[in-house]
Structure formats: structure tokens, C-alpha cells
Design goal:
Elements: E1 11-15, H1 18-30, E2 34-39, H2 47-54, E3 58-61, E4 74-77, H3 86-93, E5 98-99, H4 101-108, E6 113-117, H5 122-135, E7 140-144, H6 150-153, E8 162-166, H7 169-173, E9 182-185, H8 193-196, H9 199-207, E10 218-222, H10 226-229, E11 238-243, E12 250-253, E13 257-260, E14 263-267, H11 276-290, H12 296-303, E15 314-319, E16 322-326, H13 333-340, E17 347-351, E18 370-375, H14 380-389, E19 394-397, H15 401-411, E20 417-420, H16 433-446
Parallel strand pairs: 1-2, 1-4, 2-3, 4-5, 6-8, 6-9, 7-8, 9-10, 10-11, 11-12, 16-20, 17-18, 17-20, 18-19
Antiparallel strand pairs: 12-13, 13-14, 15-16
Helix pairs in contact: 5-11, 5-12, 15-16
């Protein structure tokens, strides 16, 4: 496994363990750096902590004393730790650099690096890029928010191997010199304001993905998103656009085909993924992989077989002419509105979940294709009211996912889409949106 060379810091504080902190601490220790670990919740007797201690790490758990910053010249923090944390705040006051492990991964990886960020679609786009490169028989690994920790993956990659990294705003905010060869910015919406405090702060964190790029690099961006376009004058890299609205210098689509510049890639009708959002993700992926010479054949192979990332408008199966889709990741109205716009067929919508005080009136303009609804969870009545306002013909309230799927199937006919897209978080009935999605797919497969 490769270690950091010519690392400019000698005494590093790793703040917060979990996967990223543990991986960063091991990398730093193996690279000959003096490491102190501070975690409020970690158990000092646990195996991961003891393993780091046996390598020579100074372990401080159970509290955040400011003394952990003594003699420290770099802080590597868990991305989820806010900058209001007393240790982070004090480090900034002392002018100690504060980064996330993504910075270390970028320093260590020697081959091509593709970084993907955006408010929506990161995981699907990252997966598509990874699968397209793999289908072209080129060495590739995936890291970041999807898969393994970046600095851990980078320890085993080769100079010829492309690392594809999904990156959150939390991770990017903690970068100083991180520089992907190809940076992909999918879209910018309002999100994570509890962490970033203002929309501008959030957008600026995302924009860090291209901040250190030079003329030798490539910036792939959504030309349909004006919030991204305002950054273009400050981008030094070669700009490659993607658009579902017009022909651009990059990847684009008309009613029948997708293109890269003037080169037709394939027919849209042959693509397995559905929906406007996924078409944007596909075009972003095409623009990224064409930049490293991936063949059209490999792109087509993936797009004609890829059913989607689990729980993200994922095609489950077809039964007796009904088409089942699992979009359990749709934990807000915006995501569900995208899902509803993805189909031309009549839809039976399964929705509901945690009550966060949200009104669902803004969902009604997107429900013109919804012929029936099955609602559940704390928001069942509110979603039922929204359905009535939209003129939905049949609405049923149920208590569990098995009943939801049965009811949806009963009210459906051939060619209908049965769509789980809850518009709510899952925590009223399920531990995670993944658990909710698994319950849906299991119930679908139990249908006769």
C-alpha cells in the first residue's frame, strides 16, 4: 500500500473517527506522521481505537479539550463535524489548516481523478461513470461518498487507474489543494443550510471542485442551471457542457438521441433509465468519460443494461404489465416531483413518512399522471389531501409496505407504473430509506 511522500505536515490531529477518520489516521501513521486522534463518542477499548494506539497514535476520547491542538500543524476532520465545533473553531483562530480526508486522497492518487458533486444525482452519475470506464476495459476504482474512503482507495490505485469520487459539500469545503482532472458539477439547489448557514456558502463549497483546476483539466457542468453558469468566468479548466434543453459544446440530447458535440451516441429509446433527472446524469457521465477516451460501444453497453442505483428511481421488475420503481431515496418534494415527471404512463404513487411540518401543496402540479395513491406514515393524511386537490381518482391509507404494494397492485392495470417515491424521510417507520426501499422490493417480489 502506498503512503504519502513529501507530506508538508508533521503533527496532525484527526478529529472524529468513523470510516474517514480511521482511514486517514492509518494513512498518516503509516506515512511517518505524528497523529493525535480526538473523538467525543469513541470507546477507547474498542478494536479500531486500540489498533491506532498500537501504531503510536495519541488517543483522546470522551471530550474535546482545546489542548488536543497543542503542537498540531494540520487538522483532518470528519466531514460531518460542523465548523462551529470548538476544536475546529479554535484551529481556524490559530490559523491551523482544517481539511477532510478527500484532501489526502487527492495528494496520494497518481492516476486520473474524476470528481462528481451536485445537489442531486451524484451517486447515479458516479456509478454510471465507473461502469462506463469499466465496460471499456480500463482500470478504474470508485471512492468518496460511494464505496470506500478516498484516501484508502488511493493507497492501492495505479498511475493508469482512474479514481471516480463522489463528493459532498461537506467534503469539498475541507479542501485546499484538491484538484480533479475532470470535475463534474451536476446542479445546485437549496440543501444543508443547517451546516452551511447560507445558500451562497453551500454553492461556494460545491464550487471548490473546480477551484484548483488549470487549463490542463476539464470542467463538466450543467448548462441548464444558471446557478452554475454564473461561476463560469472564474473557471480556468476547459469547459464541457451538458444540456437537455439545447445543443451545447459537450453532451446534449434532442427528442430521439444523445450526442457528444456533433457525434450521435445512441437512441434515447434504448436507454433503460427513465426521467429527466437521469437524462441529465447520463449526459454528465458521457461528457466525463469521453474526456478520457471511453468508446461509444462501452457507453451504450452500460446505458442499455443499467437499471439504476438502488432506491433512486430504480427499476425493480415488471409483473403482469405493471412496472415497479423504487425511489425510496426521494425524501423530499423536489425529488418526488422529478420522479413523477419521469413517466408518461399512468402512475400509482406510494408516498408518506416522517412529518417535518411540510405542506405538500407544491407537489400537486406534478401529479397530473397520478391516477391512484397509497399513503402511509405520519404524513399520510396530508399527502391524501394533496392528492384530492390534484384530482387523484383513488386514495388509500395503509399501515405497512406489504399492504401498500398490495393496494397499489389492486388499483393498477396493464401499462401502469407503481412508484414508491415517498416525498418524506423514513424515520417514522424505518431506520433508513434503504430499509424502506428493501421492504418495497420484497413486497413486490411476493406478488403473485
Amino acid at each position: 500500500m502506498r503512503n504519502l511522500q513529501s507530506f508538508p505536515y508533521t503533527h496532525v490531529l484527526v478529529l472524529g473517527l468513523a470510516k474517514s477518520g480511521t482511514a486517514a489516521a492509518h494513512l498518516l501513521l503509516d506515512s511517518g506522521v505524528t497523529v493525535r486522534v480526538n473523538d467525543m463518542k469513541a470507546d477507547e477499548a474498542s478494536e479500531p481505537v486500540q489498533e491506532l494506539k498500537s501504531k503510536g497514535a495519541d488517543i483522546v476520547v470522551g471530550s474535546h479539550p482545546l489542548s488536543v491542538l497543542d503542537d498540531i500543524d494540520l487538522v483532518v476532520k470528519n466531514p460531518g463535524i460542523p465548523y462551529e465545533n470548538p476544536i475546529v473553531d479554535e484551529a481556524v483562530k490559530r490559523e491551523i489548516p482544517v481539511v477532510t480526508e478527500v484532501e489526502l486522497g487527492g495528494m496520494l492518487h497518481e492516476g486520473p481523478l474524476i470528481g462528481i458533486t451536485g445537489s442531486n444525482g451524484k451517486t447515479t452519475t458516479t456509478t454510471l461513470i465507473h461502469e462506463m470506464i469499466k465496460a471499456d476495459h480500463k482500470p478504474v476504482s470508485v471512492a468518496g461518498n460511494i464505496g470506500e474512503v478516498s484516501c484508502e482507495v488511493a493507497r492501492t490505485t495505479t498511475e493508469e487507474e482512474t479514481m471516480v469520487a463522489e463528493l459532498s459539500s461537506f467534503q469539498l469545503l475541507g479542501t485546499e489543494n484538491f484538484r480533479p482532472d475532470i470535475a463534474v458539477l451536476l446542479n445546485l439547489y437549496e440543501a444543508h443550510l443547517d451546516y452551511h448557514h447560507t445558500l451562497q456558502n453551500y454553492h461556494n463549497a460545491k464550487a471548490k471542485i473546480f477551484e484548483n483546476q488549470s487549463e490542463e483539466d476539464t470542467f463538466v457542468y450543467n448548462a441548464d442551471d444558471q446557478k452554475i453558469c454564473i461561476y463560469l468566468p472564474s473557471v480556468k479548466a476547459k469547459q464541457v457542457a451538458f444540456s437537455i434543453q439545447e445543443k451545447v459544446d459537450g453532451a446534449w440530447a434532442d427528442d430521439e438521441r444523445i450526442y457528444f458535440y456533433d457525434e450521435p451516441i445512441m437512441k434515447i429509446a434504448d436507454i433503460l433509465l427513465v426521467g429527466e433527472q437521469n437524462l441529465q446524469n447520463i449526459l454528465a457521465a458521457v461528457a466525463a468519460v469521453k474526456g478520457i477516451g471511453v468508446s461509444n460501444e462501452a457507453i451504450r453497453d452500460v446505458l442499455t443494461s443499467f437499471k439504476g442505483v438502488a432506491h433512486r428511481l430504480e427499476f425493480v421488475t415488471e409483473k403482469n404489465g405493471r412496472f415497479f420503481y423504487n425511489d425510496s431515496k426521494a425524501t423530499n418534494i423536489l425529488a418526488t416531483s422529478y420522479a413523477l415527471r419521469s413517466f408518461k404512463q399512468p402512475i400509482i404513487l406510494l408516498a408518506g413518512g416522517l412529518d417535518r411540518g411540510t405542506s405538500f401543496e407544491s407537489l400537486t402540479p406534478y401529479m397530473s399522471s397520478v391516477k391512484g395513491m397509497v399513503v402511509f406514515g405520519e404524513t399520510a393524511d396530508m399527502l391524501a389531501d394533496a392528492g384530492k386537490q390534484a384530482g387523484v381518482e383513488e386514495i388509500v391509507k395503509v399501515g405497512n409496505m406489504d399492504d401498500a404494494v398490495q393496494e397499489a397492485y389492486q388499483m393498477s392495470v396493464e401499462d401502469d407504473v407503481i412508484l414508491l417515491s415517498p416525498a418524506c424521510a423514513s424515520w417514522d417507520q424505518y431506520r433508513t430509506f434503504e430499509e424502506r426501499g428493501h421492504m418495497f422490493t420484497e413486497a413486490v417480489h411476493k406478488l403473485n
